[in-house]
Amino acid sequence: MRDVARELGVSPTTVSEAWRSLTRAGAIQTRGRSGTFVATPGGPRQGWRYAQMGAHAVVSRDLSTGVPDHDLLPDLTDALKRLGDGRMTAGYLDAPVLPALEEVLRERWPFPPERLTVVDGALDALDRVIAAVVRFGDHVIVENPAFPPLLDLLQAVGATVLGVPMDAHGMRPDRLHAVLDGHPAVAVFLQPRAHNPTGVSMTAERAAALGAVLREFPAVTVVEDDHVGDIATAPPVSLGTHLPERTVHVASYSKSHGPDLRLAAIGGPAGVVAAVADRRHLGPGWSSRLLQAVLLDLLTDPTAIAQVADAREAYAARRAALLSRLHDRGVTATAADGINLWMAVDDQQIALVSLAAHGIAVAPGGPFCVTPLDSDHVRVTAGLVADGYDDLADALASAAILDSRGSGPRTRQHPRGWR
C-alpha cells in the first residue's frame, strides 16, 4: 500500500480505502503476508445472498419463498378475453407505456411524478435505477434488515452499503442523520409498506421526519420499493410528498396481481426515469404491451378490484392468526403487513434444521442483515398459511426457543426484539 501510495502521490489511507472497496466488490483478495491478488471470477451464484434464501431440501411445506398465494390472485380470464387482437405496437420507438395505463398509474401515484415508465418487475426496476444513480465505491444507505436481492444488486456495482436500524414505524431518522453525517451517501433505499422481511409500514409522520433529515443532504436520491402494492393494509406513503424532485418510487404488481405479469412502474424525477427508459431501448425496448393491457384491465375492472381487496383481507387474517399463536407460545415475531412474518430465534441454523425435520422450510434471517441484529431470525411466508395454524405454531416455537441444554422448547422470559 505504501508503494502504491508513493507512486500515485496519495496517502496510504486513500489506498487502504480503495483496497477495502475492491475487496468488498470481490475484485481482489487479500492473503495475509502473501499479498493481495486479483480475484478469480466465481460461479454465478457464489456469494449471492438471494441464493441462500430458498429451501435446500425436499419439504412438504415451503414457507421460504416470499411469493403470494396463487389462489388469491385476481382471475385473468376475462381480462385476456377483452384484449382483442393484441396488436398494440406500431413501431419500435413507441412510448414504453400504454397511454391509458400511464393515466391510471399517475392517478394512483403517491405524489405527482415528472415521468413514468414500466419495467419487468420490482427487481428489474431497482437494478435499472441503481445503474442510473450509483457508481463503484459510492455509499448507499438501506434499512437494516433489508431485502437480500437489493443488497446483491448493490454489491454487484461495488457500492458501500450502510444499514440504518428500524423501529415499528420504519427507518429511524436519528440514526439516518448520524450515518449521513459520517458518510456522503448518494442514495437511500426504503420499503415504505410491508417491509420485507419485518412487515413494518412507514407512517406519514415518519416519512415527514425522514424527509426533514434528507433536506439537509441535497445530493441524496431516495428510492422507494412499494413491492406489495394493493394487498398492503397500510395506506400508500412516500417521501415524494416532501422531496418530489429526488424521490424515485417503484410500484410493483407481482404480489397483488400476479408474478407472471412481470410488471412494475417507476415514477419520479425525469432525469432518472428517462435514463432508465433510454437504456432499455438498447435492450428489451419495452415491457410487453399485452401484459400492460392486462394490468390496465385488472386495475380498472370492478371484479378484479374486489378480488384484490379480498386477498388483502385474507392475508391480514392469516398474519394475525399465526402471529397470535406464536405470541401465545412465547415467540417474538412481527407481521404487521404484507405476506411475511419475521421471527426471532435463539439459533438460526438449529431453527432451520429443526423445521426441515418437520418438513417445513423458512428463509434464514442472515442474508437480510447488513450488520448483525440483537438476535437471530427467520422469515416465514405467512401469506401461504391458510390452515393448520396450531401445528405450525408448535413447530415454529419449538425451533425458535431452545431449552437450557440447547434443544427443545422452553418459555422465553425476556423476548428479544428485531430492532
Automatic annotation (TrEMBL):
Stored Pfam families: Aminotran_1_2 (PF00155), GntR (PF00392)
Annotated source species: Paractinoplanes durhamensis
Keywords: DNA-binding, Pyridoxal phosphate, Transcription, Transcription regulation
InterPro entries: Aminotransferase_I/II_large (IPR004839), HTH_trans_reg/aminotransferase (IPR051446), PyrdxlP-dep_Trfase (IPR015424), PyrdxlP-dep_Trfase_major (IPR015421), Tscrpt_reg_HTH_GntR (IPR000524), WH-like_DNA-bd_sf (IPR036388), WH_DNA-bd_sf (IPR036390)
Source organism superkingdom: Bacteria
Protein name (Swiss-Prot/TrEMBL): GntR family transcriptional regulator
Family: In the C-terminal section; belongs to the class-I pyridoxal-phosphate-dependent aminotransferase family.
Domain HTH gntR-type stretches: 1-41
